[in-house]
Amino acid sequence: MQERHARKHKVLDLWATVCPATGMWGTVIGLVGMMRNLDDPSQVGPNMAVALITTLYGSIVANAIAIPSARKLRTYDEEETNAREMIIEGVLSIQAGDNPRILGQKLLAYMSTEDRQSLEHEVKGD
Known about the structure:
Layout: H1 2-36, H2 41-96, H3 100-108, H4 113-124
């Protein structure tokens, strides 16, 4: 499961790395076009626009899409891994015949502080 998730993280990490560089390629292309046509003022604006917009697009894709998506996938991976480890621990403890109170304490260790507090409030009836 973690290997499958890692492949998806790597794709987004690659996007985060490559997109700004790709935007810079567009910038260079736009600047070359601008320099090539300096004698024609009507060509300077459109080529400058290409130069600026490609940098913007590269930055947006990396910083607004790829990096946050990769972080979110990593968080989901951690949560799913933790849940599966908790399930395995529970099944093995049941199989070993552990006392239910001990099992409950073992499983609470897998939960975040907020989740534990929420569970305590539910049990107390708050």
